Amino acid sequence: MKYLTADFGSTYTKLTAIDTEQGCVVGTATAFTTIETDVMEGFCQALQKLEIAIGSFAYDRLLCCSSAAGGLKMVALGLVPELTAKAAKMAASSAGAKVVKTYSFEISQAEQQEIYDINPDLVLLCGGTDGGNKDVILANAKRLCEIERNFSIIAAGNKTASYELAEIFKNSNKQCAITENVMPQFNIINITPAKQKIKDLFISRIIEAKGLTAIQQMSGYDIIPTPLAVLTGCELLSKGDGLDDGIGDMMAVDLGGATTDVYSMAAGEPTVAEVITKGLPEPYSKRSVEGDLGMRYSLAAMADELNLEMFAHEIGVEIRKVKKWIETCAAKPDTLPCDEEETRIEEGLARNAVKIAVERHCGYFEPAYTPMGQVFTLTGKDLSDVPVVIGIGGSIINNAHPERILSGAEKAASKDVMFAKPKRPRYLLDKKYIFASMGLLSSFEPKLALSIMKKEITYIN
To answer: Are residues 164 and 308 in the same domain?
Structure first.
């Protein structure tokens, strides 16, 4: 059996050719994603490059994933910020969606306008435990239906509101679906049904919206969100396939053109004594996506997170050159560094994207005072002892010093005290960008996918 996998990214379309008889990747190729015209153009360009490198490749199955044009853009609504709103975001992120904004309580008129301006593909509507408050989810359902945008709605809140929600949705012109509550009981998470609904809507909505219809017809299999494919690959590499062991706890950072995605495969229990955990329990397999931390489409937004004067001083480049590089890359996403200064700027920006994304993903410690004295609280996952950080994405794998970029994920003793980041990780590299490909392949050949990842994803030093 021969497989061809295609990952339609926001910047590049990546093809991977796999031969099960040889048990390996026989070739890879990339081309700039032609989302502005027709994604088939980029696909054909990449296929031509692949066949120049390895010869004609008659594949039996074409498996595809996509995050082209930023993927599935989504907002999530919940009742309480620390509870159902966070559970909604967990469900959306684990399904491969790009969560642009999360709202709590009843949305205001200004927030209605904000959702109109965001123009999401999908809204995940949650709120209330089963049998609890249903006024907020009903009010928000009505207000969402008033917004004159063509987004879909998935309701995953208090089950006792389902009848009223069905009536509200029946009178709207939006595609709506009702599924199980993401938090049926206090502090109990149930994100799998919502995750499946999001995946189904991705298939029915994004394929047409992003120009992937022809690819879908060629493949014959569902096109899934790239982050979901990567998450599946991460889970397989971490846990194994049931017969062969995986590598255990790990973190992966996918630095893309539009977003930076972070994946952690770890229980995240506190690694130090006298720590009290706060908030919702975190999943073993966690994904977070930062829509303002990309190396091309979101580069201007990422620059706003930095003190550019300090950044320019640290890398030894004039600030005007840094600003010029950011403007150029945002306007022309296919721009690549062509001299030593541009390379330093690119590397420095990439390291900061990794640093910020990992700090948002991992847990954080805060001091708390009790009658017994001072203790610390932990909100989120403690990833301090995670032994491995894997780099994914062109800005990492094409850099001469990927370990410098990935060092942004590491806890610096003097600066990152509050963040539960990995303390002394070793760095691996997905040099051929096969995580998404192996996630796709694992649906048919999990043993082979695990074997290939162990072979191809290697230590930097």
So the answer is: no
